[in-house]
């Protein structure tokens, strides 16, 4: 019987509110400094990426025209992760590399094409608008969610499967889990996986964000998101991308790559409040081996309460409960990118032997081992769990191990 | 591939040629096309375009968008046909849709239009509490969903995976966008459209619809006495990594997807009795698909019959390959190859037996269905009779 390949993370990258790469992300996470700033562009959205990735992320100029905001984050982080993994694609291996990404908002403004229709109407009501000459011919592609991941495959010549998940806030972590499955099933040798999301400009999107994500009314951006705090009032909408490079342990060893962590597996379920993904993730580790849990912890009343319940249910009152952290007080809720951002944080926590704290956590809402305030240095981290969930019920948990034989 | 066999125990179809299995079977057998000239209203004006709409009574939408209504209908049909009981099985779902065009849902809540909410909405509707995926890979969505479902069952994470997709872009904004891409057939052409594999083909016709299949571990299906309609033998996916809109000149991605599906199935090309091609009717796309098939089979002479049911349904985009999976199951059950309608003039670049004009009685044991999408996405599935 064929043994399943072990899967390791050999490259990481992150772009989000006020952070341009993984090391900068870690730096602010470690010192607990919020990167949320008041946004002039979209009031109430404090987690905007201030410095957009440079243009020229794609070689073909015509493709440049279809790169939307979320795709530009994705392409920028992909370049960083491939560099970090020191991966050099050879012709014979390119077809064995897959791309799996959870993409969030890729909507674009429809006003140009609607104007074209109305313009024709003003001339002659019954006239067919034909083929408008002044509209970008490839505009259809710009709002398809699979185009960013497809562009990524084109740019790097990755000929394996390209998969785009569109199931909301949990989709990025679901993509990491699916990347793990593609390697263990032998369908791919390496997978670039993660998530990307962008804050949108249309009023409809802002309304949706406010309603669905329970935006915090707190005016001080640095205090707006307070995961697991008794006085939490909602989340801070954010954006960005995070990707990880996964490959088999054998592949990494053969090319002398360094591994941040090993992915042990995980689970995804669609049942509001279900603790099953966490239970399955914990079961992939030895009892008492889970040192840290990067919770979804988005600062909303309902989601945090539900997560606290799940954690209590799975780990009970044992003294071996993991320490609990959340990245969202620092960079906000980057939705589809939030799960992969937590995976990147987990990889760096293993490397640095530090559990980042939750800076705004002053009065914990439950008697659980949250890491409040400052970061906590630890002797070692053996196993970690990363959670992501979305309000309609999808919950994903991924388990990581520090012992990859390469670290 | 591990030892878990995957059965299909339920089908749901809502297409321009039928809204249930009986009417769809009759249309495939009688080569009835659902394509016609449509009038799309826009802000008091009128835009004419060839299209293949489904017959959806306004009462069926009930406050939902057209895509949601179609998705719900097809999913409900498949789940009812398979008699899925989520209390007695671990049920998951793989869901994919296009996004409702802005001008087709101006009066709807914005979140109803968007991709992100369809998977969990359907999961609640059918009480699927297992793994649930919302996935979009353009025109390859349906086959990729089936692949996700197959692998989830093979890993033992679910007993049943409901795979469903829907799309409807018959709205002025989308029509104009596809015109900008030069993808649509000439609506004023004298010859009937679309014309897959025909020398005078000039583009596709937009269709709409929804398809759903219930995948189940064969052991589970047999134990509960479910009727097994067909078996999914395997699947494969690959990317051209070449262009967003143009296929690879040697059809590299499509070729690898077909080979991966055959390898996953443990079958040889000669085992395949019929291929339901992606073939939308575009000049370049159809020819490249033939290149891929000939590369895998060795020559046109070795190819089994290859037809395009999009000649009847139009291109239903994200829903297309799930609908075509359903057509393949019908073909396996009724033992016939669906036709390519409108085919008249042979094209040396498409020198295949495309089952022109009318359906053909044929002994079918193994069939293949391919899907090729924007972004260079290719996905292929292999089905067989269940023995």
Keywords summarizing the entry:
heterodimer; A: 407 residues; alpha/beta; ten-stranded mixed β-sheet; two-stranded antiparallel ribbon; 15 helices; 12 strands; B: 387 residues; twelve-stranded mixed β-sheet; 12 helices; 14 strands; 23% strand
Task: Describe what this molecule looks like in 3D.
The complex is a heterodimer of chains A (407) and B (387). Helix content of chain A is 34%, strand content 18%. By secondary structure, chain A is of the alpha/beta class. Chain A has a ten-stranded mixed beta sheet with strand order 3-2-4-5-1-6-12-11-7-8, with helices on both faces. Chain A has a two-stranded antiparallel sheet with strand order 9-10. Residues 121-127 of chain A have low confidence and may be disordered. Chain B has helices at residues 21-30, 58-61, 66-82, 110-113, 118-126, 141-154, 172-180, 218-223, 252-265, 283-297, 310-313, 320-334; strands spanning 6-14, 36-42, 45-52, 91-97, 132-134, 160-168, 206-217, 230-239, 274-276, 306-307, 336-337, 360-361, 366-373, 377-384. In chain B, helix 3 (66-82) packs parallel to helix 5 and helix 9 (252-265) packs across helix 10 (283-297). The two termini of chain B are 18 Å apart. The model of chain B has no long low-confidence stretch (mean pLDDT 93). Classes of the chains: A alpha/beta (407), B alpha/beta (387). The interface between A and B is large, with 75 and 67 residues.
User: Quick one: overall form of chain B?
Assistant: globular
Query: What would you call the quaternary organization?
Result: heterodimer
What would you call the shape of chain A? Answer: globular
Strand content of chain B: 15-25%
Helix content estimate of chain A: 25-40%
The percent range for strand residues of chain A is 15-25%
Task: Spell out the helices and strands of chain B N to C.
Answer: EHEEHHEHHEHEHEHEHEHEHHEEEE
Quick one: which chains have the greatest interface?
A: A-B, 75 and 67 residues
Please tell me how large the radius of gyration of chain A is.
21 Å
Q: Terminal Cα separation of chain A, in Å?
A: 28 Å
Mean pLDDT of chain A: 87
What is the total tally of β strands of chain B?
14
SS-based structural class of chain A? Answer: alpha/beta
- Major sheet strand order of chain A: 3-2-4-5-1-6-12-11-7-8
Q: Structural class of the secondary elements of chain B?
A: alpha/beta
Low-pLDDT residue intervals, each spanning 5 or more residues of chain B: none
Mean of pLDDT of chain B: 93
């Amino acid at each position: 019987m064929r043994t399943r390949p072990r899967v390791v993370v050999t490259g990481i990258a992150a772009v989000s509110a006020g952070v341009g790469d993984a090391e900068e992300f870690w730096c602010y996470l470690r010192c607990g400094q919020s990167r949320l700033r008041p946004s002039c562009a979209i009031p109430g959205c404090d987690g905007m990426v201030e410095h957009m990735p440079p243009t020229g992320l794609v070689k073909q100029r015509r493709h440049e025209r279809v790169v939307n905001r979320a795709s530009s984050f994705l392409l920028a982080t992909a370049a960083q992760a491939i560099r970090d993994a020191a991966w050099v694609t050879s012709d014979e291996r390119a077809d064995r590399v897959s791309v799996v990404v959870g993409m969030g908002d890729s909507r674009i403004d429809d006003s140009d094409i609607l104007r074209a229709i109305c313009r024709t109407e003003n001339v002659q009501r019954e006239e067919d608008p034909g083929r408008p000459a002044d509209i970008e011919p490839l505009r259809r592609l710009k709002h398809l969610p699979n185009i960013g991941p497809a562009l990524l495959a084109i740019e790097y010549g990755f000929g394996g499967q390209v998969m785009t998940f569109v199931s909301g806030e949990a989709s990025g972590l679901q993509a990491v889990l699916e990347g793990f499955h593609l390697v263990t099933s032998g369908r791919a040798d390496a997978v670039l996986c993660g998530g990307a999301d962008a804050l949108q400009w249309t009023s409809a999107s802002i309304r949706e964000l406010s309603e669905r994500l329970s935006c915090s009314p707190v005016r001080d951006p640095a205090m707006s998101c307070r995961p697991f705090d008794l006085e939490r009032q909602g989340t801070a909408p954010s954006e960005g991308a995070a990707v990880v490079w996964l490959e088999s342990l054998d592949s990494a060893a053969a090319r002398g790559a360094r591994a941040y962590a090993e992915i042990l597996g995980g689970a995804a379920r669609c049942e509001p409040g279900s603790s099953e993904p966490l239970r399955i993730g914990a079961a992939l580790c030895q009892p008492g081996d889970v040192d840290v849990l990067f919770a979804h912890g988005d600062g909303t009343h309902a989601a945090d309460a539900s997560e606290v319940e799940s954690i209590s249910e799975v780990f009970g009152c044992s003294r071996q409960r993991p320490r609990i952290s959340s990245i969202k007080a620092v960079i906000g809720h980057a939705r589809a990118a939030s799960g992969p951002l937590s995976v990147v944080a987990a990889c760096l926590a293993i490397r640095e032997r530090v559990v980042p704290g939750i800076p705004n956590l002053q009065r914990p809402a439950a008697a659980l081992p949250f890491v409040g305030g400052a970061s906590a240095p630890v002797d070692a981290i053996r196993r970690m769990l990363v959670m992501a969930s979305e309000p309609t019920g999808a919950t994903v948990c991924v388990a990581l191990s520090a012992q990859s034989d390469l670290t | 591939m591990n030892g878990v066999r995957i059965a299909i125990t339920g089908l749901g179809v809502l297409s321009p040629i039928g809204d249930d299995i009986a009417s769809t079977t009759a249309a495939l057998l009688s080569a009835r096309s659902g394509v016609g000239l449509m009038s799309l209203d826009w802000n008091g004006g009128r835009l004419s375009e060839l299209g293949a709409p489904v017959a959806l009574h306004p009462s069926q939408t009930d406050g939902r968008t057209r895509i949601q209504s179609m998705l719900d209908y097809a999913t409900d049909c498949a789940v009812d046909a398979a008699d899925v009981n989520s209390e007695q099985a671990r049920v998951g779902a793989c869901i994919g849709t296009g996004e409702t065009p802005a001008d087709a849902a101006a009066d709807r809540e914005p979140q109803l239009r968007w991709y992100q909410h369809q998977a969990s909405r359907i999961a609640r509707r059918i009480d699927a509490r297992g793994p649930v995926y919302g996935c979009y890979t353009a025109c390859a969505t349906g086959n990729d969903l089936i692949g996700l479902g197959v692998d989830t069952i093979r890993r033992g994470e679910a007993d049943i995976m409901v795979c469903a997709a829907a799309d409807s872009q018959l709205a002025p904004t989308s029509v104009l966008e596809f015109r900008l891409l030069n993808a649509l057939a000439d609506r004023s052409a004298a010859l009937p459209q679309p014309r897959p594999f025909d020398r005078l083909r000039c583009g596709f016709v937009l269709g709409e619809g929804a398809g759903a299949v219930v995948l189940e571990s064969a052991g589970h299906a047999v134990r509960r006495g479910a009727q097994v309609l067909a078996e999914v033998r395997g699947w494969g996916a690959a990317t051209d990594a070449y262009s967003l809109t143009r296929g690879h000149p040697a059809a590299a991605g499509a070729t690898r997807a077909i080979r991966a599906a055959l390898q996953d199935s443990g079958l040889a090309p000669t085992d395949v009795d019929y291929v339901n091609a992606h073939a939308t009717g575009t000049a370049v796309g159809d020819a490249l698909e033939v290149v891929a098939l000939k590369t895998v089979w060795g020559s046109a002479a070795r190819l089994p019959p290859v037809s395009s049911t999009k000649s009847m349904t139009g291109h239903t985009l994200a829903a297309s390959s799930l609908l075509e999976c359903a057509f393949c199951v019908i073909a396996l059950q009724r033992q016939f190859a669906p036709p390519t309608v409108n085919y008249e003039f042979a094209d040396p670049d498409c020198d295949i037996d495309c089952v022109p004009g009318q359906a053909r009685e044929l002994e079918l044991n193994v069939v293949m269905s391919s899907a090729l999408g924007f972004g260079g996405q290719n996905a292929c599935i292999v089905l067989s009779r269940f023995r």
